[in-house]
Fold this sequence. Notes:
Layout: H1 2-38, H2 47-51, H3 74-119, E1 146-151, E2 157-162, E3 170-173, H4 188-198, H5 203-224, H6 250-264, E4 269-274, E5 281-282, H7 289-294, E6 304-312, E7 323-331, H8 350-359, E8 366-374, E9 378-383, E10 388-394, E11 399-404, E12 415-417, H9 428-439, E13 449-450, H10 456-466, E14 469-472, E15 483-484, H11 485-498, E16 502-504, E17 521-522, E18 524-527, H12 529-540
Parallel strand pairs: 4-6, 12-13, 12-14
Antiparallel strand pairs: 1-2, 2-3, 4-5, 6-7, 7-8, 8-9, 9-10, 10-11, 14-18, 15-17, 16-18
Helix pairs in contact: 1-3, 4-5, 5-6, 9-12
Amino acid sequence: xxxxNSFSESSVVERNSKASYTWALVAGVAVGTLCAVFxxxxxxxxxxxxxxxxxxxxxxxxxxxxxxxRVMSASEVTNMQKHSxxxxxxxxxxxxxxxxxxxxxAVMVLLGSVVYNLLKSAPRVQLPLPKPLNSVxxxxxxxxxxxxxxxxxxxxxxxxxxVTSQKKVVGIKxxxxxxxxxxxxxxxxxxxxxxxxxxxDLQELESVFSSIQTACKTIAKLVKRSAIDGMTGLQAxxxxxxxxxxxxxxxxxxxxxxxxxxxxxxxxxxxxxxxxEDVPVEVDNTMDESYGNDVxxxxxxxxxxxxxxxxxxxxxxxxxxxxxxxxxxxxxDDDCKLSEQFFEDKDMSEAMKGCLKSTLKPGNSLVAAGYAxxxxxxxxxxxxxxxxxxxxxxxxxxEFILTHPNIKIPPRGKIYSINEANRNNWDAPMxxxxxxxxxxxxxGKKVYTSRYIGSMVGDVHRTLLYGGVFGYPADTxxxxxxxxLLYEAAPMSFLIEQAGxxxxxxxxxxxxxxxxxxxxxxxxxxxGSDEIDELIELYQK
Length: 541
């Protein structure tokens, strides 16, 4: 109310001030105009001259046969001089009569403007009142992560994340770059350095991303030279399979080792889980004895848990089709989503139980997620929970450069990426959804185009940049879907949602699914918010 009264008083003062300005201006103009009118009369000083009649000289014509020259008398010369003077006065009187009052009127108008400036009071500008602060209330949550994004100022976005109602709220500030080098741009190394400066709690994540980008550069080189270096084909000539029963390529094994070691060497990992391995493994972060004797080192004890698919789409690598690496980062905490009953019928060590408790978390517990795409260029796209940013590898300097800041997926695109060979094996809502996209009978009234690479990273990357839908739904052959929840579906869903899109199985949000095992598969459809909402409505009918 006080703010309202202050605003009302300032409004009254402002209106009174404007009225006084108007009257002062009118008064000045009126005075100048009246003075100009009154001074326009003939001046008394020149009244007599102005009233002298103009007499035309008489001309007498005398016919003479012989012209005779004569001398004028003194009286004639005097009369001629008087006549010339009278004519000159008559010619000058007209200009004098007009110029004097006009000049005097201009002087009076000037005096009127001076009077206006004297009467005018200095303007009073009311300072704007600050808007009241909006309090942010985060509802209590049980075994769930609620993510709310807001803007604290023009350049800093904050993602407020709470894991449970008892957890402390953590704010993630996006880095701010006031200047950068025109020759190098903003590198991934500098980006993460600024993240660590803005968020001291994430300093350890800087070294994690440094190792991940080193591994991705190495994998990019291996993929590019695979045919030259003889790394194509199946591992051990065939017969080597992973836990999912899939035959392993040579590059599957090599890239898994590269990424696993890079993460281990950070000293920040507590548990590492790979799609290529049967179970997650605990990382031994014991330091060399000499460190404790010579230097003071703070041991983190492995704060993070990493899950990854080292080479997604590896079945296509021999044909030169784009492939990629997918990763997700969880934070080590005591908020385990698994009950003790989960382990009752399982014969495993306490260490393995600890690994599973750390790893089997829903996607809404992710701290970071991203992928590297090895194609015509090497792209590195990731999120820390405050938007999505894309980097491109500049091979000339060996650095990832920020080329796609703040990626946003449009609510509706015009491309769908899905293996339509399985169309007859889908359930009815999925068939209707894809049919509607293909023939234009959808809420957007658009006819979509089909584009399918067969490599998840490549298809999702295009979907992020161009919009549209990517899907690998369940079918009669894979009733639980094909993609792994921990290694593929959850990290990619985190990226899509941070870019403004949505990801679902058709029935539930992918990010809310608690994993039952490290290699659990789920159906997945992701894309623009309008498109996914339309699919969910079809499943709800």
